[in-house]
Amino acid sequence: MSKTKINKVVLAYSGGLDTSIILKWLQDEYDCEVVTFTADIGQGEEVEPAREKAKAAGVMEIYIDDLREEYARDFVFPMFRANAIYEGEYLLGTSIARPLISKRQIEIANETGADAVSHGATGKGNDQVRFELGYYGLKPDVHVIAPWREWDLNSREKLMAYAEAHGIAVEQKRGKKSPYSMDANLLHISYEGGILEDPWAAPEEGMWRWTVSPEKAPDTPTIIELRFEKGDIVAIDGEKMSPAQVMEHLNKVAGANGIGRDDIVENRYVGMKSRGCYETPAGTVMLKAHRAMESITLDREVAHLKDELMPRYATLIYNGYWWAPERRMLQEMIDASQVTVNGRVRLKLYKGNVIVEGRESATDSLFDANIATFEDDEGAYNQQDAEGFIKLNALRMRIAARKTT
User: Fold this and answer.
1) Residue 179 above 80 pLDDT?
2) C-alpha distance from residue 213 to each of 46, 159, 205, 260, 352 (Å)
3) Residue of 36, 96, 98 lying closest to 64 (CA atoms)
4) 186, 72 contact by CB (below 8 A)
5) Could you tell me the pLDDT band of residue 1, with boundaries at 50, 70 and 90?
6) Which of 131, 137, 146, 398 counts the most CB atoms within 10 A of its CB?
């Protein structure tokens, strides 16, 4: 089958082995110009070397963008307003990065006149779905090239042989190579493969990069205070910070206290179960603090409705539907609920635990100590009213019980 004629393609490019091979493969197989795009979303690795590698491969248009603030402000923070968590455990660190990368790729395609985009996600994972749903949601007629679904380079040995045959430099790092497939950004670092493919095998302690083990965390707890405005953290310990600065700070302080490790077997959208380990120090703290702030500022039914809708919202993000109309609709509702989520939360970070020690809102708290008190409430709450309330709510059960006796 003949390939579609492509004049220019925008490649999501890290400069690593896989995308370096994809770059050459696109040039040869499609006889087209390749534009490379490298995103800095807080992965903690130098991205500038990708520029020299792309130049060496003959690339004329090279984009290297610092997207950390946009990532935190427009993607991570809106997601945490919803308290999103997939299958009760996963804080969606990989999932939420993909719509931003897709968005920027499409913007670059429009800027450069490219007629195609390409990514390095395999045909077995979720990322291919997330990237491509993003592409089509933003540019319906764009052509997508997914090399892992087209080529026969389906093993590391074949990739290495291709690299050698085409003069693609492969960095030989000193020391033992990590056996894990890893993905990192401001929100998390993930680990898959190696011994983790056995769900009974415990992860090796040396695998973790961002967190100390809870056993080795300091014996003295760390106390921090987070200030919220409209559901977003805007200051830590009285110091104003941007969204990316908030996440960078919390990653360090929470990681140093052994917070944020998780070991999950999750259900991928493509149908298989996958075991992965994650470090999400900042996200773990943000979720706990946000729920504490909402606990005194949200109406009961609003809070419960949010909790009912959250699994659907989280699944939309996990499966790649960030740009879908239903996610946008849910976001409007979630953001409307956050107008009153203002105030302070005090947390204790201690040996892997995030402990809420206090929460207050000078302007929006719905907690009324005069009503909630176990002491004399001076008539603020008539306890006799509860009798009728209970009988009315028990009416249907009393009717049913009479039928069975």
Assistant:
1) no
2) 26, 36, 8, 10, 8
3) 36
4) yes
5) very low
6) 131
CATH 3.40.50.620 fits 8-79+92-165, yes or no: yes
- Give yes or no for a contact between 283 and 80, defined as CB atoms under 8 angstroms apart: yes
Q: What is the pLDDT of residue 170?
A: 67
Give me the catalytic one of 18, 118, 130, 361. Answer: 18
Q: Which of 132, 69, 76 is nearest to 106 (CA)?
A: 132
Q: Is residue 115 flagged as an active site residue? A: no
Instruction: Find the catalytic residue in 68, 81, 98, 261.
Output: 98
Q: Do domains 8-79+92-165 and 181-298+341-360 have the same CATH topology?
A: no
**307 belongs to the catalytic site:** no
Token pair of 158 as six digits: 């074949």
Q: Known catalytic residue: 98?
A: yes
Query: Count H helices, E strands: the chain?
Result: 13, 14
State pLDDT tens for residues 366-401: 998 888 777 766 767 788 899 999 999 999 999 999
Catalytic choice (14, 68, 102, 127): 127
Instruction: State the fold for domain 181-298+341-360.
Output: Argininosuccinate synthetase, chain A, domain 2 (3.90.1260)
CA 385-388-394 angle, to 5 degrees, is 135
Which residue of the set 51, 73, 181, 365 is catalytic? 181
The H-assigned helical ranges of 256-362 are: 281-297, 300-319, 325-337
Domain range annotation of the chain:
8-79+92-165, 181-298+341-360, 371-404
